[in-house]
Give the backbone structure.
Amino acid sequence: MNLLTVVLFLPLAGFLIALAMPRSNPQSSRVWALLVSLATFAASLSLLAWFDRGASGEQFAVDLPWIPAFDIHFFISANGVSFWLMLLSTLLTPICVLISWRSIQSRVKEFFAFLLLLEFGLIGVFLAQDLFLFYVFWEISLVPMYFLIGIWGHERRIYAAVKFFIYTFAGSVLMLAAIIYLYIRTQTFSYPAILDMLAGGRLTFAPPEQMLLFLAFFVAFAIKVPLFPVHTWLPDAHVEAPTAGSVMLASVMLKMGTYGILHFCLPLFPSAARACAPWIAVLAIIGIVYGALVAMVQPNMKKLVAYSSVSHLGFVVLGIFSFTQIGLDGAVYQMLNHGISTGALFVIVGLLYERRHSLEIADYGGVATVAPWLSTAFLITTLASIGLPLLNNFVGEFLVLQGTALANYKWTIFASIGVILSACYMLWLYQRVFYGEVNHEVAGHVPDLFSREWVAVVPLIVMMVWMGVYSQSFLPPVSKVNAQVLAQTQVNVPFRVQLRKPAALEALRAR
Amino acid sequence: MPVSPMLDPADLIRFLPEILLTAVGTLIMVLDPLLNKRSSRLYGNLSLLALLAGIVAAIEAYHHPGPAFGGMLWIDGFATFFRVLVMVVGILTILPSFRFLTRQDAETSEFHALLLFSIAGQCIMVAANDLIIIFIGLEISSIASYILAGYLREDKRANEASLKYFLLGSFATAFFLYGVALIYGATGSINLSIVRLAQTGPDAPSPIFVGVAAAMMFVGLAFKVSAAPFQIWAPDVYQGAPTPVSAFLSAGPKAAAFAVFLRIFMTAFEPIGNDWQWLVWGAALLSMTIGNFAALLQQNIKRMLAYSSIAHAGYVLVALAARSELGTAAAMFYLAAYAFMNIGAFAVVSHLSGRGERYQTIDDFSGLGQKQPLTASMLSIFLLSLIGVPLTGGFFGKFYIFRAALESHLVWLAVLGLLNSAVASYYYLRILVMMYFREPSDAACAAEPLTPGLRAALILPALGTLFLGIFPNWVLDFAGRSSNLLR
């Protein structure tokens, strides 16, 4: 037991107590959820004091037997990547509580209880080091999100909720088969132990075996990311979800997929991952360009942001499969950036919806005149999202493109189109919603930010600037972990693929 | 093994649960005309006591393991596990039936007596190590359940269910008996251990002979566990039978029949395992696929649960197809988890169905989450467990089964089974959708408040489901130790 365990179980305890709270007093549920999520955030922040930024390995490990008959352990720890993702989850949960304060008026107690359960599942996914435990958290996080979309969503919420559940569930059953298979091969669920066996050469996979296992894991993660062409659940889920659901979904849940690829797929099945890299990169690039193009023509703000997520997450996948240090660092940084900036986009779109009760872009216009602060916040977020230098996404996108260029220059060219397109659709969105004639409906219904909303928006904007200006606060631990992941993809490779990296590097240097 | 004419007192201890249940069942039938009461509450309470005492007796018998009556019964961990399981199923059937019987104006003593007889039959089945005793247990259990299925005699559907169940059931039992006869002809014995030995000796019977007998018994037992392609009766019977009886049929007799299935095929027919494995393989895949895809189309909740129970029979057959001790243990664990979640789900259906079982469609669950949060949340736990979401018994059971299948290199069966479970999530989610995402329906508004019996009947299986999902170690341990059947 250590502080990390406390961070993990606080939301669960909060959930259980929230269930027992009186239905007749919704305010108590709100306050309780806020307190618990803030306490969780504070606890996770205080972990920073003990967090060793120079270490590449796992920290704060807790390993307790859970089901001895099957050698299943409660085994959690954090490394330089999962630590930031955990902080992202704990930061966004109180923000989600704040923005749902007024907008959720029915079944308040259940809403906030589910939000805390979701936080528990998400943190667990990032911390679990036992494959069985990982699968448990992976599925647990599905249930509260299903209810959040289904109960508090918009018109087509049922369709979206069921689609969301079935897509993820169907993808993950094969991962379960692969996890069981790994267990049978290794007699353990402990992920570090399996990696040790791989490194020591005590565990090797025949090429077809490795490929199938890789695909079983990868499909589950790709659906979650979501990678083109299995992304179709995402726009539905985002559009129909309540604001807090969209924020958690976009900011944290999608990262479960990319984190899974980085943390499990690459070290476990390096040769298969390298063999598939060109195909996956092509899918990622299609996702980048396709997501951006579709975002451009959306009449619905939330759908636009949702498709922009498909595009942004394409960058992350591309960075991971560049198999370069820079690309991997960029991918992880982009995961965090997307969590902050897209989270903020959904927050502000949610605030607009609360005021005007519409998500259609056509129903807006001239918001900047009536609500200047809200517009400013949205502008900064927009600029961050399109990758303006000094704001966070620029760093991530730049690193990804640089890493990709080292791996394959053509990928960079196509991926860069996505950057340009993102500027088009985001700025066009901004122009149509915030500038122009003040729409009559807008004038009467869109007040500026309230103090509670200030509290929700400002931390995100601060993070955008901080991460854009001084990435050194965040990147070094990430690089350490990524260096180790890259080293792991070099060991024990029975059919090694010839890397193009060195040649490309020299060609660049020669120029 | 010669049957000794002298009765060993230890035999009586080993047979005590059956004696208890039969005695109380008979007592209830005698008391009824004497007391001439309208309410059946007394008989229900008496049955509950008998079942609790039976469980204690079964545990006591476990401490005296070994043969009874010259090897006709064999009390071991396996038998004890299933004896306790069917008696727990009995308790969970009786708890919600109090209110149900009052509402249908059908309070009689027979219901409880028949239930006890049926459970006694199942206890005999699971402890038997002799084909004739298995057959006797099977008949005691089945005949009582045929009557139970038609218990609401004014109801046409119940009559249809009962008749269909009876006709097809007798047909299946005949198959089973034919198999027993063939085995006796081939090996000269009906004792499972001797049948097994006879196949390895120098004058072993023709494997074809044994194979045909195994196939016959397979048909009989596949009918009893409602595995495809012998599942046709299940939806009609489950729909027509009174809901507590459907709950009982889907858990108790099924678990007992699976116990027999495991015991016969893992001991007597173990030498020809390579020949029956593909048969079970096919039946498993067919059951999962037919059950899950047909369930997608159902509007009636009881029919849907019937198809779902066919699919779950398929999952357990996967464990049997693994042909290992691990598979046996997995099947044991799964049947326990399944009993809890399915009985719980049926208890909610029986609570909601109202007088004359009017409300039986999935739409009738609309808005239950708002009207009766406790009922709805308990049903959610059962449904999530049926889907196989972690931290529920259903998930761990599936995990165990597919692990056993993969250990036995049944990769395709495991993959197809897991994909099947993803398909299944859709129809279980439909009920969740109705309960939480829709406005309340007449049925939800008309639902009575929970009685203490019903409350217990919902909370106990829910706790059981969660217990098996979060702390499965104890049951895992026991199942693992008891899966090495007597050979």
User: Anything to note?
Assistant: The radius of gyration of chain B is 21 Å. Chain B has one domain: 9-482. Chain B has 21 helices and two strands. The interface with chain A takes residues 370, 373, 384, 387, 389-391, 395, 399, 402-403, 406-407, 411, 414-415, 418-419, 421-422, 425-426, 429, 432-433, 436-437, 471-473, 476-477, 480 of chain B (CB under 8 Å).
